[in-house]
Write a structure and sequence with these properties.
The complex is a heterotrimer of chains A (292), B (384) and C (318). Chain A has 292 residues and is mainly alpha-helical. Helix content of chain A is 74%, strand content 2%. Chain A contains 11 helices and 2 strands; from the N terminus they run ααααββααααααα. A 5-stranded parallel sheet of chain B has the order 4-1-5-6-7, with helices on both faces. The model of chain B is unreliable at 18-22 (pLDDT under 50). The chains are: A mainly alpha (292), B alpha/beta (384), C mainly alpha (318).
């Protein structure tokens, strides 16, 4: 076991963790404001990746393709909420959950029809060989992943804390009734929340697609792990979700490298179980998941 | 809502009995994984089957034992890579569509799941899946045949090559699907018998996006060569990771990467990769006296004009459907007769190899059915 | 429905079940009905957990798998008697439910659901990796059918009787349970946990009890599945199946046992109906790719227009 190997696990884990963090953040924003667990979040990731692949194949340059992918999927997410979910605010939470499951199946099915089953390659945003970081290899696209993640977090932080709309969104999350009394259009805020969540998912998909390719069914596993990361962070705390995402990526990588690769995919869920147990035993310094 | 359920039941029952059972066409059933994880294999299989159906019917049909031409009617169902759906599809083909024989399935799991159904109903099945268990033990598989080369055959070709090249310390990674697991079981046996040592043994998931952790472990064991046993996209990601990590030792892959997609996706990292596969991919480079060459070239040309780049999985379906067509020609729509006809097939020059079936061998292939292929300049070449 | 009405319905269905294989010759239709029952059982179990204990479990597939694998491995690899193996599978699942349920039922709401989700997926990975026992991803073939003396349950008709017999038995049992004191207590818990606790109902034990019962019922279905297909592998038992069960229960109405069976029937029939209808509409062989999208759209439409499911979501009044 060399320092180089450990560095490799950490670096690879951090890149994947950035993706989980982006996806987790999307879950948190959607749930925090509309109280909906969005089963289709992973599909936004997939759509972002496929859109990126299609645009790149048409010769569109990376920054433009990225922006277009994110914006179009964000708009789609907002439409989905407005059209299918917002009308159901009075319905039982379970029905809404099943509705998002139906949405995720439909989106996947349509993606299959439009793009087929073959994975699509996406060129890296900037060509060039991998880079050595502390003795570990990191592909250049990894920098883009971390960069997009960081930029998104900063932009969101700025939005929530420094703008009126952001404050309004937070108010809705905390107390919708009071927010409405203050003149905030709560239903508009829900749409905005889903716009952001879908945009974050699409950004994650678009930036990781050069590494993982774009496939119509890539959203399932990524969405599930992003969800676990979000839950680790309490499902309502954006910074915790981000931390949860990175933590998950790194732990996964370390476990595969140091213990056994056979159970790598199970790691996320073992971590989840441990966190749940810790909560039961009262060993957690913070409370996971505010009851809603 | 009870009404809707009742309507659904009615729809299915009516739909099932609707088509009149015509005696004229020869009915062949097919179950492929057109959606789900097996779809990259199932779609070329379906396309190949359709191609043969069109060609056969363009010639007027199959000449049966009665001397008359019968059109070929292919009924294709998607099992969505799911065992339950495969069982229902098989029963539907047998009871509702009244097919004489069934071709498929794509994946080993679904084939194993329908064995009981086809054997009980006494309907011949020609599977396009790889697991040896599908046709072994032969005494308990009277009605089941398969066309892909078995794993021990493919692995045998690879291990022979490794030994011949003096690569005795090998690292191994496999995808945690049946395909990968079966490959490992055979590889472990074959390397032990050949005196090679496996210094690292790692696994990854089909949906994993990063294999650097596993490859780092393998690298630490200093193997002389690394074998990766999976299919795209995970095979391609592993290939890129391999190059990115700067691993210099030769990489070998499985026959799962026998399509152009793999090379495209690995974008340069696949250069120099070697893998065992059927001869379809290097058909043009075979010696002119190779019995398979004309058949391979004809199929490659047909498939490439109509559908796209050739791949070996479509080839498995070609073999299966052609075998069925020949058997129908000999025995008509008699299921037992078709079974006997398939079992009695000798020296059938197919895509996956030259088939010699017998009551004790329902796969009918030997080592000559696979060869080592190397990717050079993005093209397939016979490996030296 | 009340107890007398329930008896009538059960008897009527029992008569139908007894007579059906004599009227229905198609093995395809019989097989579909078998799968409806084999899905109906875990759906009923989940319905108990959700409708009466008010908890969501996203890991029921794991119990199905335990039932299938314990019974399958004991009979295929070790030559045990089929019924004993089946029973042991059910017991194993119940034991597992106790072990898992004790800690996690201290949680509630979303975290409980997440814990069950994690549990289900971990069991899946154990099945995939413990190849020596489970056969790994390529599965275990040669599971013998159940036998009673010389009578073998090896045809679709016989399995139909066995599966539906089990389902009706479970429905009768759980129906009584729902009406009993325990059932009323459960509904009290679902309605208002604090109030229930205040009246002296041991809510944690009740919820655990329902969870264990559901696990047992689900494992029974799993065992029957193994002996029906005679082949098992991990792929049907993943997270996707837990989600499918959830869909079945909500479609049918989460607080109704018969609703759960209806939900199971709807899902199975929907998939097969799509398979039958699509080729007629598109007249192309590309139909299979449309099935997924159509299924999702139908599901969404269902939830948009009938969010309370086929039998209503309110806890049943007796």
């Amino acid at each position: 076991m060399t320092a180089e190997q450990i560095a490799q696990y950490l670096i690879s884990g951090a890149v994947v963790g950035g993706i989980y963090a982006l996806i987790a953040l999307g879950f948190v924003i959607a749930f925090g404001i509309t109280r909906i667990v969005n089963f289709a979040q992973g599909e936004f990731v997939m759509l972002g990746a496929l859109a990126m692949a299609t645009l790149s194949a048409r010769g569109v340059r990376a920054p433009v393709a990225f922006a277009c992918s994110v914006v179009s999927v964000a708009a789609f997410g907002a439409l989905l909420y407005r059209g299918a979910l917002q009308p159901l605010t009075r319905a039982p939470a379970l029905a809404v959950l099943i509705l998002t499951i139906g949405a995720s199946i439909t989106i996947r099915g349509v993606a299959l029809i439009l793009w087929g089953t073959d994975p699509l390659a996406v060129p890296a945003f900037a060509a060039g060989p991998p880079v050595l970081v502390a003795g570990a290899v990191m592909v250049r696209q990894g920098f883009w992943v971390l960069g997009v993640a960081a930029a998104s977090f900063v932009a969101l932080w700025w939005f929530f804390t420094r703008t009126y709309s952001g404050a309004a969104v937070q108010a809705c999350a905390v107390n919708p009734l009071a927010a409405r009394l203050m003149g905030i259009r709560v239903d508009r805020v829900g749409v905005l929340a889903w716009l952001l969540a879908a945009g974050l998912g699409a950004a994650a998909g678009a930036v990781i697609s050069p590494i993982t390719y774009a496939t119509y069914d890539m959203g399932l596993m990524l969405g599930l792990k992003g969800f676990v990361a979000a839950v680790l962070g309490g499902l309502v705390s954006p910074p915790a979700a981000i931390a949860g995402g990175f933590l998950l990526g790194v732990v996964e990588s370390l476990a595969a490298g140091l213990v056994s690769s056979a159970y790598k995919d199970a790691v996320a869920f073992v971590v989840l179980v441990l966190v749940c147990l810790a909560q039961v035993l009262g060993a957690l310094p913070w409370r996971v998941v505010e009851e809603g | 809502m009870h009404v809707i359920s009742a309507l659904l039941v009615a729809l299915v029952v009516v739909g099932a009995y609707l088509p009149a059972v015509a005696q004229e066409p020869y009915r062949l059933g097919a179950i492929f994984s057109i959606t789900g994880p097996g779809s990259s294999l199932g779609i070329p299989e379906r396309d190949t089957a359709l191609m043969i159906e069109a060609d056969v019917n363009a010639r007027g049909g199959i000449k049966g034992p009665d001397g008359r031409l019968h059109p070929l009617k292919l009924v294709i169902y998607d099992d969505a890579s799911d065992e339950t759906k495969a069982v229902l599809a098989a029963k539907k083909l047998i009871d509702e569509d009244k097919v004489t024989a069934i071709v498929g399935t794509t994946l080993s799991g679904t084939s194993l799941a329908i064995l009981d159904t086809v054997q009980r109903a006494e309907v011949p099945l020609i599977s396009c899946a790889a697991a040896a268990k599908i046709v072994e033990p032969a005494a308990e598989r009277r009605w089941v045949f398969k066309t892909p080369q078995s794993d021990h055959l493919i692995v045998g070709v690879l291990v022979d090559y490794l030994k011949a090249k003096g690569l005795t310390k090998v690292g191994w990674l496999n995808v945690d699907y049946a395909f990968g697991q079966l490959g490992w079981i055979e590889f472990e046996k074959a390397t032990a018998a050949a005196g090679l040592s496996v210094v690292a043994n790692e696994k990854f998931g089909q949906k994993d996006v990063d294999m650097t952790a596993q490859l780092t472990r393998v690298k630490a064991a200093s193997p002389q060569a690394v074998v990766v046993w999976s299919i795209p996209p995970s095979a391609s990601i592993a290939t890129k990771n391999y190059a990115d990590l700067g691993l210099r030792m030769p990489m070998f892959q499985s026959h799962g990467v026998g399509n152009k997609k793999y090379i495209e996706l690995a974008s340069g990292a696949a250069e120099g990769v070697r893998f065992p596969a059927g001869k379809l991919l290097v058909a043009e480079q075979l010696a002119d006296n190779d019995a398979q060459k004309p058949v391979l070239l004809a199929y490659a040309r047909d498939f490439e004009t109509r559908y796209g780049p050739r791949n070996t999985f479509g080839g498995h379906a070609w073999d299966a459907v052609q075998l069925a067509v020949r058997a129908l020609g000999k025995a008509g729509s008699d299921r037992g007769g078709v079974r006997a006809a398939i079992e009695g097939t000798r020296n059938f020059v197919g895509i996956s190899g030259v088939f010699d079936f017998s009551p004790s061998d329902h796969n009918g292939l030997d080592r000559r059915a696979a060869t080592m292929i190397q990717i050079v300049d993005g093209q397939w070449k016979l490996a030296r | 429905m009340g107890a007398p009405e329930r008896r009538v319905v059960l008897s009527a269905v029992a008569v139908l079940v007894a007579g059906a294989p004599l009227a229905v010759e198609s093995r395809y239709l019989l097989a579909m009905l078998v799968f409806i029952a084999l899905n109906g059982l875990p759906a009923v179990g989940l319905s108990l957990v959700m409708g009466f204990a008010g908890q969501v479990s996203l890991g029921q597939a794991a119990f199905f798998a335990v039932g299938a694998y314990v019974s399958g491995v004991l009979t295929a690899t070790h030559g045990w008697n089929g019924w004993l193996a089946l029973l042991l599978g059910v017991a194993a699942a119940a034991a597992l439910a106790v072990v898992v349920g004790l800690p996690i039922f201290r949680l509630s709401g979303l975290l409980l659901a997440m814990a069950t989700l994690a549990f289900g997926i971990i069991v899946y990975y154990v099945l995939v990796n413990w190849s020596a026992v489970t056969g790994g991803p390529s599965g275990l073939a040669g599971v013998p059918p159940l036998t009673l003396g010389r009578f073998r349950f090896d045809t679709d008709a016989r399995m139909f009787w066995l599966a539906w017999g089990s389902l009706l038995g479970v429905l009768a049992l759980t129906g009584n349970l729902v009406d009993s004191r325990i059932g009323r207590a459960l509904r009290a818990v679902h309605g208002n946990e604090a109030a229930a606790a205040a009246v002296g109902i041991d809510t944690a034990r009740l919820k655990l009890g329902v969870f264990v019962l559901a696990a047992a019922i689900t494992a029974l279905a799993g065992g029957l599945y193994a002996h029906y297909l005679t082949f098992i592998n991990p792929s049907p038992f993943g997270f996707g199946y837990s989600v499918e069960l959830l869909v079945m229960v909500v479609l049918g109405g989460a607080a109704s046992l018969w609703g759960a069976v209806l939900g199971a029937a709807t899902v199975v029939l929907l998939v097969e109906a799509l398979r039958a209808v699509l080729p007629l509409l598109t007249a192309a062989h590309g139909a299979a790719e449309y099935e997924i999208a159509l299924f999702g759209l139908l599901l969404m439409a269902f939830m948009l227009f009938r969010p309370s499911g086929l039998a209503g979501l309110a806890p049943r009044a007796s």
